[in-house]
Each structure stands twice: as structure tokens, then as C-alpha cells.
UniProtKB/TrEMBL annotation:
<dbReference type="InterPro" id="IPR002509">
    <property type="entry name" value="NODB_dom"/>
</dbReference>
<feature type="transmembrane region" description="Helical">
    <location>
        <begin position="30"/>
        <end position="48"/>
    </location>
</feature>
<dbReference type="InterPro" id="IPR050248">
    <property type="entry name" value="Polysacc_deacetylase_ArnD"/>
</dbReference>
<keyword id="KW-0472">Membrane</keyword>
<dbReference type="InterPro" id="IPR011330">
    <property type="entry name" value="Glyco_hydro/deAcase_b/a-brl"/>
</dbReference>
<protein>
    <submittedName>
        <fullName>Polysaccharide deacetylase family protein</fullName>
    </submittedName>
</protein>
<dbReference type="Pfam" id="PF01522">
    <property type="entry name" value="Polysacc_deac_1"/>
</dbReference>
<keyword id="KW-1133">Transmembrane helix</keyword>
<feature type="transmembrane region" description="Helical">
    <location>
        <begin position="7"/>
        <end position="24"/>
    </location>
</feature>
<keyword id="KW-0812">Transmembrane</keyword>
<feature type="domain" description="NodB homology">
    <location>
        <begin position="68"/>
        <end position="245"/>
    </location>
</feature>
Length: 258
């Protein structure tokens, strides 16, 4: 059973117990309020931290790994900066995983094809990457995933199994949608925040300090600062004798349908 269902059942059980107690003794209303706030806090945390598997199973790392392997992932492309990212990856002979937005694929079809021809893995990152994605109905989420999958299949013949929700947000609607489309949700456990911080040193140090075997790093192929951080990161991982692999190899999962 998913974690949020367990929490809901637990909270309902506590409410019933408290309500029953009101027939025998005074139960202050603040106890009910506190219980509600705890539930609300857990729900919010579970929605925004994909690693918790709160609403749906997400593959965010290779737990308990002792092998110095790590996966590099890039979100929100293909973008004009993707070419620089691909050039760097080729220079270091590294394979990565790109979670692509449907609209961006339409805008940059040749770059998208280069990602594949260079031997990198691709995954679904929705069609629109709307800021309101977390409020979409399950059917609208299905439509976004399906539209991008069809677009990719038309351009490359590839049927993607991996899906990464925009912003890493999960909820019951997204959980229902991925269950219907039968996609595997891929998260991360090393978040660079390269779309939040402006200082390259801050971004690099944040990632470097979280490096450990079996990790999945989240970067974005959408800015020059991320490209600069990537070069430093590739040099650091090489110095630490890490093997950089695609997500399917790290997790031993099939990225594409046969």
C-alpha cells in the first residue's frame, strides 16, 4: 500500500478514536487541528519530495550500492544549450539520460535526434511542463505523457518507459496516470538546483558534497552555468574514479519497450 494511503487510514482511525472519546471526556479541538496540520504537512512534503515514494513508486537511486557508479540526468530540453552538453559528454565519453519536454522536441527535432544518435537515453518529461502540472486531472496527465510518447515514436521509433514528472511533483492524479500508461517514474537523490542558484560554485559544491555510489544527479541542459558546472563535475567524477552510466544501466530497468 502506498504511504499516503497508510497515513490517511491512520489519521482517520485516530479521528474516530478521538471522536469516540468525546462521548466520555472532553477532547480539546486543538488536538483535531494538530492532527490535520500533521496530515497536511506530510502530504505537502510527500508531494514535493519524489524520493519519499509517498504517492507513487519512484526510482531515485540505487540503494545500498557500493560500486562507484552514478547516473547523470538532464531535464527540460532539448534546448539550444543541449548541443554544448552533448559536446562535453562526447569529449569525456560519457552517456547520460535526457528527460525531454514534448514542446521542446517539436522546437528542436534535430537536437533531439542527436541526443539519441550520440547514444544517450531519453525519457518522458511531459508535453508542456506546465507550472500547473500538479493540479492536472489524471486524464490530462495521461494526455501529456501519451502526446510526448507518440511524438518521440514518430521521430525515432522509440517507445519510452521512463517518466519524470515536472518539478518532481507527485500526487494521486499523477500516480493514477502513470499506472494507466504503465510508465516507470524516475526521480533523483542529488538535486543541483541549477535553475535556482546563479553561482556556479554553489551549484558545483552542492552536487559534489552529495556524491555517493548509486546516485542519480539532476541537472538541466538549459543554461551556460549548468554547462560550466557539468565540465567541473565530469572532471571531479573522473578524479574520484566514478563510472557514469545511463539510468537504465544503473537501475537495471528497461528504458524502452521492445
Amino acid at each position: 500500500m502506498l504511504k499516503h494511503k497508510k497515513i490517511v487510514l491512520f489519521c482517520v482511525a485516530v479521528v474516530l478514536v478521538l471522536f469516540t472519546l468525546t462521548f466520555f471526556t472532553a477532547v480539546h479541538w486543538t488536538i483535531f487541528l494538530l492532527l490535520f496540520l500533521v496530515w497536511l504537512g506530510l502530504t505537502a512534503w510527500g508531494s514535493f519530495d519524489i524520493r519519499l515514494n509517498y504517492f507513487t513508486k519512484a526510482y531515485s537511486s540505487k540503494p545500498n550500492s557500493t560500486t562507484k557508479e552514478i547516473a547523470l540526468t538532464f531535464d527540460d530540453g532539448p534546448h539550444e544549450m543541449t548541443e554544448k552538453v552533448l559536446d562535453l559528454l562526447k569529449k569525456f565519453n560519457v552517456k547520460a539520460t535526457f528527460f525531454c519536454i514534448g514542446k521542446q522536441i517539436e522546437n528542436n527535432p534535430e537536437l533531439f535526434k542527436r541526443i539519441i544518435s550520440d547514444g544517450h537515453l531519453i525519457g518522458n518529461h511531459s508535453y508542456s511542463h506546465s507550472e500547473n502540472f500538479g493540479f492536472f486531472s489524471s486524464q490530462k496527465v495521461v494526455d501529456e505523457i501519451t502526446k510526448t510518447n507518440k511524438l518521440v515514436e514518430q521521430l525515432s521509433g522509440i517507445k519510452m518507459n521512463f517518466f519524470r514528472p515536472p518539478f518532481g511533483v507527485t500526487n494521486p492524479m499523477i500516480s493514477k496516470a502513470v499506472s494507466e500508461t504503465k510508465h516507470l517514474v524516475v526521480g533523483w537523490n542529488i538535486r543541483s538546483l541549477d535553475t535556482v542558484y546563479e553561482d556556479e560554485n554553489t551549484i558545483f559544491e552542492r552536487v559534489k558534497n552529495k556524491i555517493k555510489p548509486g546516485g542519480i544527479i539532476l541537472l538541466h541542459d538549459t543554461s551556460q552555468k549548468s554547462v560550466n558546472v557539468l565540465e567541473r563535475l565530469l572532471l571531479f567524477l573522473k578524479s574520484e574514479n566514478y563510472s557514469i552510466v545511463a539510468v537504465d544501466e544503473l537501475l537495471n530497468l528497461s528504458a524502452y519497450e521492445n
